[in-house]
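Q: Got a minute? One more chain.
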Amino acid sequence: MIAAHVSRRYARALLELGQTEGNLEALVADVSKVAEVYEASHDLKIAIDNPIVPLPTKKAILVEICDKLSLAKTAKHVVLLLGDRRRLVLLPEIAQMLREMNDAQKGLLRAEVTTAVALSDAFYQKLLATLEKLSNKRVVLDKKHDPALIGGVVLRIGDLVLDSSLKTRLDGLKQALLPN
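A: Always. Here it is, folded:
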């Protein structure tokens, strides 16, 4: 709970900073890029979160990552600040909150649709039209594929998850049939 509060404060500060500097979209994109790299690399997490690794070494690693990602000055300073304060672990959550705050200001709703296989564009267009009608907002669909779902669709809008996947139904049936 405290981490979410801290992440929200950083995200709000970044939102205001991006608006002031007039580069909010670029800042959101840069922070998201670094967050994805941090999330994807187990070795990076270990190096940054390890208290034995000296702070100058951690800073050098972060500077190199920022340079390779061609981050703008503001995003680079944010990453280094989070590294100095030992809060880089919050970066993925900060990036997510920053994206949500930016989307909310633009009247945009982001929905994540996960299917077992790629579906037709007609399906996605119909889903998009339905979501926009229900929410009275412009909706952006993030399409993902997960073969483990077997079939069906999982729709995630913020905290709301609508799961009609075959995997979930089979898991529910399995739980109902197994003795307690």
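A: The chain has a mean pLDDT of 92.
Q: Perfect, thanks.
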